[in-house]
């Protein structure tokens, strides 16, 4: 555990990619194989689930530190992170331990089988043998809240350097439905011929945002299509069985049973990259319709009828069992076209249409009319790469929708922003009342958050737990990607990806939008 804590500290104390890679390489070469496997799992989001409620940990920590609960809560409000607060207030450990990361995770996974008294005893005993950073990480693992600022590409690069394997090979090994409980480091990373996993997806090719059409050069060398507003996924048909993976490496097969029929027409050894869209009467439905099916492991008949789906295909990665990612985009597209031509028109599979490249700005401007987010631009000669590579694939999103609103509630942030009020609730006018309609916490500079924090503290009207009510005075321009009707919200709408575009200190309260204006945006764009 000491080695893993040292690695975490090393990652946390630098923003330099080279330094992070070096720290990972050192750990992956020196740590025991079981700890290496758990490190990879944790850094790719495969963390243990929460096994103890935060309220119990809070109570036990306050008791151990001999602090009244109100003082613990005040400390927590300032620190902004439960694990860090507990690690800071607990008395120093009375003994040392050399237990490994794997040992501690085994203890955590055994806790649910214990009664509350036994769980408390085991956790207090652990706290009494762990130093500050080790204690912090142990609590993060207990609560299921472990996260680290390391991208999949950075981890892949470090593993490639530590093992001497090509980065593309490592990236493919890390994909799929593996877990540290069911594999070993050797089977996952180093064995020369690991048993093929027929469900395993390829690493997704991601794109960079385009600032201007002029950055492309000659448009003749590019293919353009809509950037569809759905769920990115890979449809895999191998060994007579189909699988659907999300870009976040989540298996979604059972959530979209309509796609099972594609196995009747597509050849074995097919992998298609595309977008799952809610689709009816030859057109995509708003993302909000698809969102009703996200997070469900099984889908009731009602939702199958209300939000049927199709796979909008835009790339072919495997053809008749052969990896064709190295072929040019145009060649892959031609093979994909041939495949889709064999599928009946009523099947839930469509080829994303190519758009003229003579006026890309006009095509981008009309994207929202077809429930798209903008354009995807792909160099016709480009291979299908892994990760976010700059130069061959671009996304050119439509300008966001905007509305002016007033802040009516504020809440402190977390982590390094725990001392600042950064999470705001915004409202529009409805006659003499102010109706809340969205929350946002990004888009401003640290300096602006600092100024607003001072204002919030000086102008608090009421407190509701961590939330503070403030007078309607500070106006902001809110940007968002989409809007949908929502009976769960008082305003009747829900925004997609809201953020603060500008703090409008120049704008008076009388000029914020009204609820009727918000509803008009819903009518036009919902």
Q: How many strands appear in the DSSP assignment?
A: 22
CATH class of the largest domain: Alpha Beta
How many domains?
A: 3
Overall spatial form: globular
CATH topology of the largest domain: D-amino Acid Aminotransferase, Chain A, domain 1
N-to-C span: 51 Å
CATH architecture of the largest domain: 2-Layer Sandwich
Kindly report the name of the CATH homologous superfamily of the largest domain: DNA ligase/mRNA capping enzyme
**What portion of the residues fall into strands of 2 or more residues?**
15-25%
Poorly predicted parts: none
Fraction in helix: 25-40%
Describe this structure in words.
This protein has 526 residues and is of the alpha+beta class. The protein folds into three domains: 141 residues, DNA ligase, ATP-dependent, N-terminal domain (DNA ligase i, domain 1); 193 residues, DNA ligase/mRNA capping enzyme (D-amino Acid Aminotransferase, Chain A, domain 1), CATH 3.30.470.30; 125 residues, Beta Barrel (OB fold (Dihydrolipoamide Acetyltransferase, E2P)), CATH 2.40.50.140. Helix content is 34%, strand content 24%. Strands 4, 5, 6, 7, 8, 9 and 10 form a seven-stranded mixed sheet that branches. Strands 14, 15, 16, 17, 18, 19 and 22 form a seven-stranded antiparallel sheet that branches. The chain has a four-stranded mixed sheet with strand order 2-13-11-3. Strand 20 and strand 21 form a beta hairpin. Helix 1 runs antiparallel to helix 2, helix 5 crosses helix 6 and helix 6 crosses helix 9. It is globular, with a radius of gyration of 26 Å.
């Amino acid at each position: 555990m000491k080695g893993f804590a040292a690695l975490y500290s090393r990652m946390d104390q630098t923003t330099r990619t080279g330094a992070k890679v070096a720290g990972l390489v050192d750990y992956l070469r020196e740590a025991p194989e079981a700890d290496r496997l758990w490190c990879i799992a944790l850094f790719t989001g495969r963390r243990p689930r929460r096994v103890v409620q935060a309220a119990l940990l809070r109570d036990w920590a306050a008791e151990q530190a001999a602090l009244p609960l109100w003082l613990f809560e005040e400390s927590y409000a300032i620190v902004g992170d439960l694990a860090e607060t507990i690690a800071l207030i607990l008395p120093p450990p009375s003994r040392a331990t050399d237990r490994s990361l794997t040992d501690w995770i085994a203890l955590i996974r055994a806790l649910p089988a214990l009664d509350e008294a036994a769980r408390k005893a085991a956790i207090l005993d652990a706290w009494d043998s762990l130093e500050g950073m080790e204690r912090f990480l142990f609590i993060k693992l207990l609560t299921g809240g472990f996260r680290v600022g390391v991208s999949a590409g950075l981890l892949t690069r470090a593993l490639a350097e530590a093992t001497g394997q090509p980065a593309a090979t490592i990236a493919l090994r890390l994909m799929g439905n593996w877990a540290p409980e069911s594999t070993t480091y050797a089977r996952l990373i180093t064995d020369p011929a690991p048993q093929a996993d027929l469900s395993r997806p390829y690493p997704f090719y991601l794109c960079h945002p385009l600032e201007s059409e002029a950055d492309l050069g000659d448009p003749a060398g590019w293919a353009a299509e809509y950037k569809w507003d759905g769920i990115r996924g890979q449809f895999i048909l191998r060994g007579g069985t189909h699988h659907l993976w999300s870009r976040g490496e989540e298996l979604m097969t059972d959530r979209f049973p309509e796609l099972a029929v594609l196995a009747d027409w597509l050849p074995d050894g097919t992998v298609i990259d595309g977008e799952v869209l809610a689709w009816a009467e030859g057109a995509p439905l708003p993302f909000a319709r698809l969102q009703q099916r996200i997070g469900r492991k099984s889908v009731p008949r009602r939702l199958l009828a209300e939000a049927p789906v199709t796979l909008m295909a835009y790339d072919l990665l495997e053809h008749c069992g052969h990896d064709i990612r190295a072929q040019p985009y145009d060649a892959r597209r031609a093979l994909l076209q041939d495949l889709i031509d064999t599928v009946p028109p009523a099947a839930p599979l469509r080829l994303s249409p190519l758009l003229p490249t003579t006026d890309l700005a006009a095509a981008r401007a009309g994207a929202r009319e077809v429930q798209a987010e903008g354009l995807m631009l792909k160099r016709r000669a480009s291979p299908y790469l892994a990760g976010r590579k700059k130069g061959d694939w671009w996304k050119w999103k439509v300008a966001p929708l905007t509305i002016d609103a007033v802040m009516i509630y504020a809440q402190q942030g977390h982590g390094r922003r725990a001392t600042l009020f950064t999470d705001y609730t915004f409202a529009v006018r409805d006659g003499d009342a102010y109706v809340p309609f969205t929350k946002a916490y990004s888009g401003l500079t640290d300096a602006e958050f600092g100024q607003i924090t001072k204002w919030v503290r000086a102008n608090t009207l009421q407190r509701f737990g961590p939330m503070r009510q403030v007078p309607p005075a500070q106006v902001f321009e809110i940007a968002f990607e989409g809007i949908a009707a929502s009976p769960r919200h008082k305003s009747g709408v829900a925004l997609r990806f809201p953020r603060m575009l500008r703090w409008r200190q120049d704008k008076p309260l009388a000029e914020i939008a009204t609820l009727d204006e918000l509803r008009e945006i819903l009518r036009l764009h919902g």
